[in-house]
Amino acid sequence: MTRASPVPESKLPALGTTIFTTMSALAQKSGAINLSQGFPDFSGPEYLQRRLAYHVQQGANQYAPMAGASVLRDAISKKIARCYGCQVNSESEITVTAGATEALFSAITALVKHGDEVVCFEPSYDSYAPAVQLAGGTMKHVRLSPPDFSPNWAQFAALVTDKTRLVIINTPHNPSASTWQQQDFEALWDAIADKPIFVLSDEVYEHICFAENGHYSLLQHAGLRERGIVVSSFGKTYHMTGWKVGYSVAPPSLTAEIRKIHQYLTFSVHTPSQLALADMLEHMPEHDQQLPAFYQQRRDYFVDALQASRFTLLPCQGTYFLLLDYSAISDLNDVDFCLFLTEKVGVAAIPLSVFCCEEFPHRLIRICFAKEESTLRAAAEKLCQL
Above 90 in pLDDT, residue 1? Predict the structure, then answer.
């Protein structure tokens, strides 16, 4: 008699393959220009590549310390002091992770317990909600609406309860390309200062910010700094998304809890990459300072190329994403429009509704402009034909 194999009960029954994987696969199958998933089609700094090869050849190929190579954590601490004017202890407050997504997951898992509530602002990056669900928490959402996607603080205050454990923020914001400034952090602090609530600040696009006053980090706010976790990504900063190296910055008590998760989730991150990144931070600190202009030039080039189209372009203050309103072109919902765009027009994009748990009634798509000008020009020519 044959016994049936057991079927596991899914912990995430509502989830399937991410839209990013789906659209990238469809783009490849259709031969479409892939502006969906957020990755550059150009390589990172040659110096960084050479230093990676150097450290591999020198034999730095065994486990790094669990918290990260000390030389990299020291370099991150110096960068934070240079960029944000605050002192961070590299030994007790910085943890190197396998990409920013691991840092986010470790922080959420460390802080959220069964029955806790987490407030985030949506549209939001798609890894937040599954991590909260796996931790036993409940996600509550503050709706951000076009064109400026600014937070509604009255709505936020109405969502905060005695069960609220964590607030997740993201600036510069994926997918809306909006940014928070100091007054937004002040408003957040006013709302939670007297409550036992932590803040997880996703700042992976910190150096891709075009706002007039630049990027404002949670690390610059004294009150939030004491109860906040900041997450950043070397992949975004150095055009090397496949390296999957990120880090978290948090007070010692929070870092200790994050590392309890990190050590059994990943333990340590690719050693030669860490050493190469430390060299990059030490010898080419100007790279992150030049990044806003580098990406703004690509943004402006693409915006100019799309002026002849029937799309309405929304403001872009940060990230390497641009939102397009296609209301003048089609009545299709955003998922179906992106399928049409990929298969029939030859340009892959991401629908905004996939970043939302609740219905998102706007006709908006997200496209990535972290591409060579030739790629952007070819995509714009196709989009202008609609």
Answer: no
